[in-house]
Design brief:
This protein is of the alpha/beta class and 136 residues long. It folds into two domains: 7-96, Uridine Diphospho-n-acetylenolpyruvylglucosamine Reductase, domain 2 (2-Layer Sandwich), CATH 3.30.43; 101-136, no CATH class. The chain is built from four helices and six strands. The strands form two sheets. Strands 1-2-4-3 form a four-stranded mixed β-sheet, sandwiched between helices. Helix 1 (7-21) runs antiparallel to helix 3 (56-69).
């Protein structure tokens, strides 16, 4: 049996997240639909809202807010889920990490890099090129 999250809890979370994120919190139908569909055969199940954090502090605040109100969270990377991982059968807040694109550190000697969740292979490889390295 699938039940939606309590509407009052969702509204409380959205109010708090609007104060934190401003226009980086979306309840637009098209944005929600895009984030409720992966590369799976399962039907789309959109979240109630999509948050676009820019920092780990913002991610932490989103998680704390949702947890306090018991509103589900759905992490979203590139949306390539084959198993329905981006579906939101109970509603909730999708946390889209694609705008967290900072390359924190590159250590050519160790052939190691620390990046934020939104860094793509292409973005990382542009930065690694100067060291004669690549990530595949």
């Amino acid at each position: 049996m699938s039940t939606r999250t309590r509407p009052d809890a969702v509204e409380a979370v959205l109010a708090e997240l609007r104060r934190l994120l401003g226009d980086r919190l979306s309840t637009a139908t098209a944005v929600r639909a895009h984030h409720g569909r992966g590369e799976t055969y399962l039907p789309p199940q959109p979240p109630d809202a999509v948050a676009f954090p820019h920092s780990t502090d913002e991610v932490r605040a989103i998680v704390e807010t949702c947890a306090r109100w018991r509103v589900p969270m759905i992490p979203y990377g590139a949306g390539t889920s084959l198993e329905g991982h981006v579906a939101a059968p109970h509603g909730g807040v999708c946390i889209d990490l694609s705008q967290m694109t900072r390359i924190v550190r590159i250590s050519p000697e160790d052939m190691d890099a620390t990046v934020e969740a939104g860094v793509t292979h292409r973005h990382l490889n542009r930065h690694l090129q100067r060291y004669g390295l690549f990530f595949s």
